[in-house]
């Protein structure tokens, strides 16, 4: 950027600086309110002189060009789309990446991964350090997939990165992906767990089963129990679970539930038993730990009626 000093490029530089400045002050204010999640100091860099918006236009998986990358990209797609089968030695539950990142990350609404490689490396407060795309994938492997990390030079990890780079084509480094992060509820209402249980029976069991064990990674993934994500996953937070439900569920009718209903459902789901994350004490090493993470202690508090929802929801 600094080398671009002439004419129109100079204008872009000034505009970019203003945008970055605005984004950073938002971030600082966000932190002060405890509003930010582990995802991102986002910078907004205009791609052309007239347009500051990055367009959602990933290349199709049907049209991967022939050449040495093709095999890796298609293998990466398979690993993301069918993870518990294609990488069953590494996955500890019955989920696939696509169980949350719908359409293997192509879906614009459900935790989209289009453009993701443009946003890494990135500082992540949960880790208290700079995280590469490889480390971020492994983060979902050990938490959301309740499994094991891939080796850094493994074919699997290389293929996933190749696939994510492919679906990130055209998104400039550092760009703000407006479609990402939409499955996050900024202000979660105080939930009514009993009402969540009723709603669950009405609207969710057809695909996710009455006991939460699901009907399949791509038809209705496990929402709790041993085949679901562990309580170190992002989805174990009320803000992310309620946001995901409100934005995307039931499948085909995303955006129809009220925030209150989505919060009730999230509280019901997250008060059920699930695998435990062993390293809670190592997360957020530099502070900023959110209160809305539903660990075993909070699940117990829901059961015995002592949970203080206001306190739990005070930081998201
Ligand atoms: C149980 C749900 C779930 C599953 C399964 C899951 N993830 Fe995630 N993933 C999340 C959530 C939630 C986030 C955080 C999004 C946010 O902070 O807004 C996330 C974030 C990410 C990010 C960073 C996205 C960004 O915009 O910075 C990557 C990369 C990622 N996941 C890859 C994967 C891969 C690869 C798999 C499969 C191995 C996977 N995830 C499985 C829920 C899941
Ligand atoms: C028609 C079937 C269907 C219905 C009904 C449905 N879901 Fe889903 N759900 C899915 C599928 C399929 C996915 C995987 C992501 C995708 O493809 O959209 C999913 C993913 C999820 C996830 C993220 C995955 C995970 O393991 O955490 C949550 C949370 C969720 N659903 C909650 C609900 C809730 C709550 C309801 C009821 C309001 C509901 N769903 C109704 C099919 C359904």
Automatic annotation (TrEMBL):
One Pfam family here: SoxA-TsdA_cyt-c
SUPFAM superfamilies documented for this protein: Cytochrome c
InterPro entries for this protein: Cyt_c-like_dom, Cyt_c-like_dom_sf, Cytochrome_c-type_DH
Enzyme class: oxidoreductase
Keywords recorded for this protein, A-Z: Heme, Iron, Metal-binding, Oxidoreductase
Start and end residues of each stretch annotated as Disordered: 278-316
Residue ranges of every copy of the Cytochrome c domain listed in the record: 71-168, 191-273
Coiled-coil parts of chain: none
A GO molecular-function annotation: thiosulfate dehydrogenase activity
E.C. designation(s): 1.8.2.2
Protein name per Swiss-Prot or TrEMBL: Thiosulfate dehydrogenase
Chain's gene name: tsdA
């Amino acid at each position: 950027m600094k080398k671009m000093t002439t004419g129109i490029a100079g204008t872009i530089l000034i505009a970019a600086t203003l945008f970055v400045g605005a984004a950073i002050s938002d971030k600082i204010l966000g932190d002060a309110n405890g509003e930010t999640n582990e995802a991102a100091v986002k910078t907004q860099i205009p791609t052309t002189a007239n347009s500051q918006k990055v367009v959602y236009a990933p290349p199709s998986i049907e049209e991967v060009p022939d050449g040495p990358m093709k095999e890796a990209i298609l293998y990466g797609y398979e690993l993301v789309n069918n993870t518990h089968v294609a990488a069953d030695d590494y996955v500890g539950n019955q989920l696939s990446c696509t169980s949350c990142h719908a359409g293997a990350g192509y879906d614009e609404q459900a935790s989209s991964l289009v453009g993701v490689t443009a946003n890494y490396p990135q500082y992540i407060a949960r880790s208290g350090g700079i995280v590469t795309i490889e480390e971020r994938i492994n983060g979902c492997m050990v938490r959301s997939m309740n499994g094991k990390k891939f080796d850094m030079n493994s074919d699997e990890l290389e293929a996933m990165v190749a696939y994510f780079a492919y679906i990130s084509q055209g998104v400039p480094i550092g760009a703000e992906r407006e479609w990402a992060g939409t499955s996050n509820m900024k202000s979660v209402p105080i939930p009514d767990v009993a009402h969540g249980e009723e709603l669950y029976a009405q609207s969710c069991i057809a695909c996710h089963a009455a006991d939460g064990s699901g009907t399949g990674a791509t038809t209705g993934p496990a929402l709790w129990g041993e085949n679901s994500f562990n309580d170190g996953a992002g989805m174990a937070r009320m803000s992310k679970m309620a946001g995901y439900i409100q934005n995307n569920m039931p499948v085909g009718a995303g955006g129809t539930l009220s925030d209150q209903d989505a919060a009730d459902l999230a509280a019901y789901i997250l008060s059920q038993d699930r695998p435990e994350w062993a390293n809670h004490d190592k997360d957020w090493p530099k502070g900023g730990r959110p209160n809305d993470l539903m660990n075993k202690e909070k699940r117990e508090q829901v059961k015995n009626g002592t949970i203080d929802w206001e306190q739990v929801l005070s930081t998201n």
